[in-house]
Design a protein that fits this description.
alpha/beta, 12 strands
Length: 520
C-alpha cells in the first residue's frame, strides 16, 4: 500500500501544480485578473467534480491496480500535452490581443481551458479509485478514506508552493508543466511495472512523443513577436509576469508585461521625457503654493517597474533620495540590465523588492512626493486603493507633500477616477486631475495642504528660465491637461473595495462599445 500512497501523493501534487500553472499559462497573454483566476479555478473544480463521480463508478467496475496506474499514465501524458498544444494557440491569441481581435482572444482563452478537461478529470478519479482499492471492510472505510485524502491534500500543498516559489522562476511555465507530468508518469509507470511487468513498457511511446513535440514547439521562439519596427532583446518569465524588453530603431527600449498591452517603462540613452504618462509625475510637487524645483527633497515610488520615473526625477531634481518599490525581482533585474536602473547610473535610488503597501509601512523617511504607478487594468491591487492605504501614504508625506496616482479610464467612463477621487478626499483636502493626452490615463494628485489649480498654474509661470527644458515642456503640457474632478459615491475601504468589478465592467463596455477602433 505504501506505493499506492506515493501515487496518490504525486497525483495530488500534479493536480494543484497544473492548476497553478494554468493561471500562469493564460496570464502570459490574458493577464492575472480575478476574472482569469475565477475561470481557471471554476473549471478545474468542475473537471475534478466529474472526475470524482466517474472515478467512483470506474473503480467499482474495474477495481484493479492495473486500471488505476493506467489512469495515472494517461493523466500524466495528457498533462504534458497541454502546454505543447496550448503554445501555438496562445501565440495566436497574443497576436490577436495585439490587434485587438476580441473574438479570437476569447476563443483562444476558452480553447486553452478546454485542454485541461480530460487530464484534470482523470486525476480527479484517483482518490475515489484509491479508496476502493484499499478499503478492506466497512469498519475501516472512514479511516482509510481520511488517510488517502490527507495524503492527496499534502501532495496538493506541495504542488501549490513548489512551482510558484521555486520552479517557475527557474524553469518557466512549459518546462515546469513537463517536469510535474514526467514525475507522475514515472511513478505511474513503475506502479504499472509492479503489477503487469514488462507489459508496462508499451506506454514508453508517450515520453518519446512528448520529447519530439517539445523539440518542435519549444524551439526558443518568443511567445509574442516584437512590435513592428522593434526587436526583442530580452525575454523572461517570473512568478509574477511574462517579461519582454524590446528596442526600436531609434534606440528606445520598452518594457512589456504579460499580454503586452501598455508600455510599463521606457529608456533612451540621451532622452528622458517621452510625452507619456510617466512625465506627468514630474509635475506633482507644483500643486503646492510657492514651489520650485529646489523644494523637491525626496520621492517614493510604488510600482517602480524598470525605473523610468526614478530616472526622470534624478535627471530633473538631481540625486535626491528615491525609494522605489517593485514586487517582481525579475523586473528589477531587467531594469538594471537594460534601463540604467542600477547603482552606477542612479546611486540615489534604493530598490525595494516587496509588496507596495507592506514595504511603504516599513519605511521611516517622509517624502515630498509619493508616486503610485501600480494600477494596471484590468488587474489593480485593491489594497493600494483604499482609505486606509492612503492614510498610510499620508503618514509618509512631508507637510507640503503630495501623492500622485496613475489611473486608467476611457473617453466616456471615468468611474474609477471618480471613485478614487472620493476615496482620496477622505484623507486629503484637495485632489487635482490631469488627463494625459493621447492615452487612457489620468494622473490624480492629492495634497496634504489645501491647494488650488491656480497655485499650480502660478508655479508653472514662475519656473526659472534655467530649469531643464524637459520639465518646462511637461509643466506647460500639464496645465493644458488639467480637468475638473468629480467624486462619486463609491469609496474604497479595506472592508469593501470593488475595484476589479468596476474595472471589468469598464473594459467590457469599452470593447463592446466600439472602443477597439480607437486603439487601432
Amino acid at each position: 500500500m505504501a506505493y499506492l500512497y506515493l501515487a496518490v501523493f504525486t497525483s495530488g501534487m500534479t493536480t494543484l501544480a497544473v492548476e497553478m500553472l494554468a493561471s500562469r499559462l493564460l496570464g502570459s497573454v490574458f493577464g492575472t485578473s480575478n476574472l482569469v483566476w475565477a475561470n481557471v479555478i471554476g473549471l478545474m473544480l468542475l473537471y475534478l467534480t466529474v472526475g470524482y463521480f466517474v472515478g467512483g463508478r470506474w473503480a467499482d467496475r474495474s477495481p484493479h491496480f492495473s486500471t488505476f496506474y493506467r489512469i495515472l499514465v494517461w493523466g500524466a501524458f495528457l498533462s504534458a500535452v497541454i502546454p505543447l498544444v496550448a503554445r501555438p494557440v496562445l501565440s495566436a491569441a497574443a497576436t490577436a490581443f495585439s490587434n485587438f481581435d476580441g473574438a479570437l482572444s476569447i476563443a483562444s482563452f476558452a480553447s486553452v481551458l478546454v485542454l485541461f478537461a480530460i487530464p484534470i478529470t482523470l486525476l480527479g478519479t484517483v482518490s475515489p479509485f484509491a479508496i476502493r482499492l484499499t478499503v478492506a471492510d466497512a469498519q475501516s472505510a472512514g479511516k482509510t478514506a481520511g488517510r488517502l485524502y490527507a495524503i492527496s491534500t499534502l501532495g496538493s500543498l506541495v504542488g501549490t508552493f513548489l512551482p510558484v516559489v521555486i520552479l517557475l522562476p527557474e524553469l518557466g511555465t512549459f518546462q515546469t508543466f513537463l517536469l510535474f507530468a514526467g514525475v507522475l508518469f514515472l511513478v505511474a509507470l513503475i506502479g504499472l511495472w509492479r503489477v503487469e511487468g514488462t507489459r508496462a513498457l508499451r506506454f514508453l511511446w508517450m515520453p518519446v512523443l512528448i520529447a519530439v513535440l517539445s523539440l518542435f514547439v519549444l524551439n526558443g521562439s518568443p511567445l509574442r513577436a516584437a512590435a513592428e519596427g522593434a526587436q526583442l532583446i530580452y525575454e523572461d518569465e517570473s512568478a509574477y509576469n511574462y517579461i519582454q524588453v524590446q528596442e526600436d530603431a531609434a534606440g528606445n527600449r520598452y518594457l512589456y508585461l504579460n499580454e503586452g498591452q501598455g508600455i510599463h517603462s521606457q529608456w533612451h540613452a540621451t532622452q528622458y521625457a517621452y510625452g507619456r504618462t510617466w512625465d506627468f509625475f514630474l509635475t506633482a510637487p507644483y500643486f503646492n503654493p510657492d514651489t520650485q524645483p529646489d523644494d523637491v527633497e525626496s520621492l517614493a515610488l510604488i510600482g517602480l517597474a524598470a525605473g523610468t520615473i526614478a530616472r526622470q526625477y534624478t535627471h530633473i531634481y538631481g540625486d535626491i533620495p528615491i525609494d522605489g518599490i517593485e514586487i517582481d525581482p525579475a523586473i528589477v533585474e531587467a531594469g538594471a540590465r537594460y534601463f540604467d536602473m542600477n547603482p552606477e547610473a542612479m546611486p540615489n535610488l534604493n530598490v525595494i523588492v516587496e509588496d507596495g503597501r507592506y514595504a511603504l509601512n516599513q519605511l521611516e523617511r517622509r517624502y515630498s512626493v509619493i508616486g503610485i504607478d501600480a494600477y494596471r487594468p484590468p488587474y489593480i491591487p485593491w489594497q493600494l486603493t483604499t482609505v486606509e492605504f492612503f492614510s498610510e501614504v499620508r503618514d509618509h508625506l512631508l507637510d507640503n507633500g503630495v501623492v500622485a496616482i496613475n489611473v486608467g479610464r476611457t473617453d466616456t467612463d471615468r468611474r474609477l477616477i471618480d471613485a478614487l477621487t472620493a476615496t482620496l478626499l477622505q484623507v486629503y483636502p484637495t485632489v487635482h486631475a490631469m488627463d494625459v493626452p493621447y492615452s487612457f490615463n489620468t494622473i490624480l494628485v492629492a495634497s496634504v495642504q489645501p491647494t488650488t489649480s491656480e497655485d499650480f498654474i502660478r508655479n508653472v509661470a514662475l519656473i526659472p528660465q534655467d530649469a531643464p527644458d524637459d520639465l518646462k515642456t511637461t509643466l506647460n503640457l500639464a496645465v493644458s491637461a488639467l480637468v475638473p474632478v468629480t467624486a462619486s459615491e463609491t469609496i474604497f475601504t479595506d472592508n469593501r473595495a470593488p475595484v476589479e468589478t468596476m474595472v471589468d465592467s469598464m473594459v467590457l463596455n469599452f470593447l463592446f462599445g466600439g472602443g477597439v477602433e480607437q486603439l487601432r
